[in-house]
Amino acid sequence: MILVPANIAEIAAAFICTVCLIIKPSVLNRWFVLFLWTTVVVELMGKLTSQNLMVKVPMYNLFNGVEFFFYLSLLTSIAIWKKSKIIFLLFIIGFSLFFLINLLFGQGLFIYNNHTHTAGSVLLIAGSLFILFKIFTSETYEPRPLRTPLIWILVALLIFYTGNLFNTAFYNYQSAVNPRLAVKLYRLINHNLNIVLYLLFNIAFVFEVRNTPQPE
Q1: For residue 159, is it within any domain?
Q2: Tell me, what's the pLDDT at 216?
Q3: Which of 140, 157, 188, 190 has the fewest CB atoms within 10 Å, i.e. the most exposed one?
């Protein structure tokens, strides 16, 4: 099993989040620590089962649901505006229904559920843009965005899922036309975006430690 830079970035983010949680516990780090280590385990299992698609594909399809449910729940917790929170809850319900229907009656368990990933990505992109807009237009906004952990998280999600949107949306089609090219293109885009995603997450974790008051 050979680890690529994207895998190392994932492991580093999980480790840094854990260290930050130990140094100075915060809500943000508590949110992420279990999810990041779960992601590491899934990706390592994906490496070990790379030749066994009957195990690998169902695992990633199920993790799709976990991944987007986590991030949509995170956005819901960030959205402090009442009407917005209701909309994000509807996002979660709608995505959960779509995930289950596509898994059970649509693309199925043994074909990569790129429709689910695409739907989740669109919701996360829209949600991240909306919250960033609300933050920057708020009357109480403090003009120090580079030191605000949530902004780094939202920007990370926005860059990753926007950059990966068409790559994932057309993956199954590309695989049918030219499997080798589809895999190479997917890895090139996804792996590089993963590095950016976890780098920005790490910045958020560090600023969260710096911004969190020391308990008395």
Answers
A1: yes
A2: 47
A3: 140
Q: Is 198 exposed, middle or buried (0-12, 13-18, 19+ CB in 10 A)?
A: buried
Q: Is 202 helix (H, G, I), strand (E, B) or coil?
A: helix
Work out the widest C-alpha separation in the chain, in whole angstroms. 62
User: Which tokens sit at 216?
Assistant: 């008395």
What's the structural domain count of the chain? 1
> What single string gives the DSSP state of each residue in 123-187?
HHHHHHHHHHHHHHT-TT--S-GGG-HHHHHHHHHHHHHHHTHHHHHTHHHHHHH-HHHHHHHHH
Q: What is the pTM of this model?
A: 0.94
Residue 53 sits in which domain range? 5-211
What token pair was written down for 50? 């790379």
pLDDT-above-70 percentage for the chain: 94
Per-residue pLDDT tens over the stretch 156-207: 999 999 999 999 999 999 999 999 999 999 999 999 999 999 999 999 999 9
Q: Is residue 216 part of a domain?
A: no
Report pLDDT for 91.
Answer: 96
